[in-house]
Fold this protein.
Amino acid sequence: MSGDASVSDLATAARLVRDARRIVVFSGAGVSAESGIDTFRTEGGFWQRYPPEEFGTPMGLAKLYAADPARLARFLEELVGPIACAAPNPGHQALAALERGIASRGGALTVITQNVDALHQEAGNSAVHEIHGSMFDIVDAEGRALRRLERPELARIADALARSQRGLFKRTRLARALLPLIGLPSAGTWTQPRHRPSVVMFGEALAEPAWQRAQAAARQADLVLVVGTSGLVYPAATIPELATDAGARLIEVGPERAFDGIWLPGKAGEVLPALVADPAPS
Ligand code: APR
């Protein structure tokens, strides 16, 4: 483990994990970094390459679609492609093992994630609240569920996005490449697509009922395990405080510290397996 956490921090944290009965995991992009998906705000991160005010809102995408479809296609390919070919890493797998372990002791573990990559579910976690929505859940214009994409289909969309950046008629080819993911009305306006992923963009309300259920789980937790988030985006980042205000202890895993509690510096894929496996002395 990197950073200045002492072995006793790990032992203390492992004991808290072992003794907990209701754990809430609050995860961000960092838990998926070792699966090949970029984080947003670290050096060279996604929002440094693609400013969120331009790429993170429906209106911003609408302007790009009109003005620079090739740049929009490149952004979407870089967003969708890594998610399409990602697989759970040892950090995700440790959290799934932790859910099985705590269930065997009569407890429960709930994952509240800001990520849209469905890797927690693929690793085996069963109680997952995707408060920023999902790249795989396609909803209609009113937000009603239409269907769920499979990862190979998302990979085909990413390939089509890459091809759409070459040659003529880029806008038409972009709209065709996106069709399984985003259904643009004939006018091609991005702000009212016929269908889209349930991914929550800046300025939009968080996904429901995920957000209500996440807050309820946080209020009932006796331990909140924060993994791989800068804690800068609200209201999502209120989750750890909701838990600690209700009496939960806090453990944070990641190379940078964002919350008060036991900080275990390092990568999720390295720290979480050690935390979950550590046979805390009874
Ligand atoms: N393991 C654990 N943490 C890591 C790793 C790793 N291997 N690599 C990076 N991190 C940490 C970074 O140090 C940073 O603190 O993950 C955090 C990622 O922070 P952000 O990039 O801000 O991502 P996140 O906190 O998930 O952003 C929240 O902002 O733009 C919106 O909707 C987007 O859901 C996202 C939200």
Observations:
- The chain has a mean pLDDT of 93.
- Residues 170 and 259 are 45 Å apart (CA to CA).
- The pocket of adenosine-5-diphosphoribose is lined by residues 28-30, 33-34, 39-42, 45, 114, 132, 228-230, 232-233, 254-256, 267-268 (CB under 6 Å).
